Amino acid sequence: MTSTTLPRLAVTAGEPAGVGPELIARLAATDLAADLIAVTDRDHLLAAAAICGIELTLTDDDGQRLYERPPGHLRIRHVPLGSPAVFGQPSPRHAAHVIATLTLAADGCLSGEFDAVVTAPVQKATINEGGIPFSGHTEFFAERASAEVVMMLASPELRVTLATTHLPLSAIPAAITAPLLERCLRIVQQSLQRLFAIAQPRIAVLGLNPHAGEGGHLGREEIETIEPLLERLRGEGMDLLGPLPADTAFVPAMRSRYDAVLAMYHDQALPVLKSEAFDRTVNVTLGLPFIRTSVDHGTALDLAGTGQADVSSLIAATRMAMDLAQRRATR
Fold this sequence. Notes:
Elements: E1 8-12, H1 20-28, E2 35-40, H2 42-51, E3 57-60, E4 73-78, H3 95-111, E5 116-119, H4 124-129, H5 137-145, E6 150-154, E7 159-162, H6 172-175, H7 178-194, E8 202-206, H8 221-235, E9 239-244, H9 252-255, E10 260-263, H10 266-277, E11 282-286, E12 291-295, H11 312-329
Parallel strand pairs: 1-2, 1-5, 2-4, 3-4, 5-12, 7-10, 8-9, 8-10
Antiparallel strand pairs: 6-7, 6-11, 11-12
Helix pairs in contact: 1-2, 3-5
């Protein structure tokens, strides 16, 4: 990518029966200055565009850089479905198709064909029912790239990262170890510096227990695991706040004190973010050797095929991928 050519963004459609194909069609209709390469089935994408009333022009991707992209135009890497997909009715028969799109996008990023990948939502249960073990985009890309990663959810007002992602609550206390938290904090620190251009990041770390353990009366993970680690990393120069009680960490007076939050588990922090910025929140995978962003919502099977799905989150994810790709190119 140069200062005049467009960033090449692979955009995967996710679950064929979900809203992903319609969202990509709506994304194509915008004037975003990016070379958008849809990674999906050609005919299914055209059917989604017709449902949305969008006249979509598809061109096979030849890998060459573009200087402009007219609204309504997309390049495509055709990945055949194998059997027809019905909007609103996910089928395990399409599990291999979904994985093939993610594989193509990841490998294209690793080889430098794409500057970033933007993902529409997948139906994890359906992929597993198709005989392919799958716990999520984040884990898939981490394994494909042989990388240690951290999930970040970012809105214009708040960045939240997760020490654990898709674990049952009963498994979380045992998973919160000093090596895990140290790995997460180092990845978050480096990513804030390299991707978000924050020279000296300030990271707030939440406690695991209510009131951050209440001095050991509500749990000892803060005393035995979290606090000693934070103290050691502060000695290396990291600017770390906490462990903080989760119920007060997000009040306005606290937010000015940090650039990102490390939460201990999925539902400890994400309800706050989604309740105030659902259509503006972007999922970013930190630690990968390439840029990956995603919408922060599910497949919306009840809306699929109606042409009514809101494209705001996919636009936000695409804009962030563009910004991060440009920042990386000029580092």
